[in-house]
What we know:
Number of strands: 0
Shape: elongated
Number of domains: 1
Order of helices and strands: HHHHHHH
Distance between the termini: 21 Å
Amino acid sequence: MEQETNLTPKRTTFLTVLCVLTFIGSAIGVISNISNILTADVSSKMIETMGNSIDEAVESSNNQEATSMQDASDTLLDVNEILDSTNSEMTEAEMLETGEQAIEDVATNAENKSAEAAANMMKSLVGGINAESIKNNAYASILAALLTLIGAIMMWKLRKIGFWIYVLGTAISVIAPLVIYSGNLIGAISSVGLGFFGVLFVVLYAINKKQLVY
C-alpha cells in the first residue's frame, strides 16, 4: 500500500504556480468583464463624445490647413514679385519680414497636417466601438476566462484534457477582439496583448504537459 502511494503522480511546484496564476487571472477576467457589461452604455457614450470631438478637430484642422496654404501661396507670390521687380521700393527689412511670414505659413501648414494625422489615428482607435460591441467582447472574454479556469482546474488534477481546454480559451480570447472590433486598433492591440501572455502560458503548460497523466 505504501509503495502504491509513492507511485501516485504529484504536481510539481512549477505546475502548481501556473495553475494558481491562472485561477487568479481567470477570476479577475470574469469580474472585470461583468463590470464591462454593466458599464457598456456609459463607456459607449464617452467614446461617442470623444469621436465627435475628434471629428470637429479634424474639420477645424482642414479649414486651418486650407487657410494657411492660401496665406503661404499669397506670401510666396509677394516674394516672387519682389524678386522680379528691379525698381521695388520695399526695404530689405520688409523683404525679410515677408520671407519669414512665408516660412511661418508653411510651418503652420505642416503642423496642421500633423494634427490631422494624429486625429485620424485617434479616430481609428475608438471608431466602431459601441455598447453592443463592448458587451459582445465582454461575453466572449468571460467565456474564454471560464474555459481557461476549467482547463487549469483539470490540469491541477493532472488531466490531459485540461491543457486543450486551456488552449481553446486562450484562442477565443485572442480571436474575439479581432472579430468583434474588426478594422479597429483596439481589437488589434487587445489581441496582441492577450496573445502574448496567452501563448506564453500555453508554452509553459506545454512544457509541463508530460505531468498530465490522466
